[in-house]
Design a protein that fits this description.
With about 130 residues, the protein is α+β, with helices and mostly antiparallel strands. The chain has one domain. Strand 7 and strand 8 form a beta hairpin. The relative contact order is 0.15.
Length: about 130
């Protein structure tokens, strides 16, 4: 039983990516005392907070996570979903991050699918969607 628990805790580490970000390079970064792991693919990024804080405020953590994503990816964060431990950012890589821009933060719904337009021609509209 002890071996099983040891293997379980080794496999379930605190900075493991979600299935959508498996295989993405992980970048560790510290912003104003908060340590994050940032992984990103295309127009999405996942941010995991590694340090512990007593009763962190989501506004402060989301602002730091936004800065971390923008520094790592070079893209502007438009929306951020999640909580103080794990956040998902939707990026606009056509925009250079601006210091006066603040991403819109939303609490993650239980079941959520987000889509964006990836192309359109004549009467065909292509959407790229993912479960978050």
């Amino acid at each position: 039983m002890m071996r099983f628990l040891l293997v379980f805790f080794l496999l379930v580490s605190c900075d493991s990516p979600s299935p959508a970000f498996r295989g993405a390079d992980a970048t560790r970064i510290e912003i104003d005392g908060s340590r994050f792991v940032v992984r990103w693919f295309g127009a999405r990024a996942e941010v995991l907070r590694l340090n512990t804080d007593w009763s962190p405020r989501i506004g402060d953590i989301a602002t730091r996570a936004e800065r971390a994503v923008e520094l790592v990816s070079g893209c502007q964060a438009e929306r951020i979903y999640g909580d103080v431990a794990k956040l998902t950012a939707l990026l606009d890589c056509a925009q250079v991050p601006r210091p006066d821009h603040t991403a819109e933060w939303r609490r993650m719904p239980r079941r959520f699918v987000d889509c964006e337009t990836t192309g359109a021609n004549d009467m065909v509209l292509r959407l790229e969607c993912w479960r978050m």
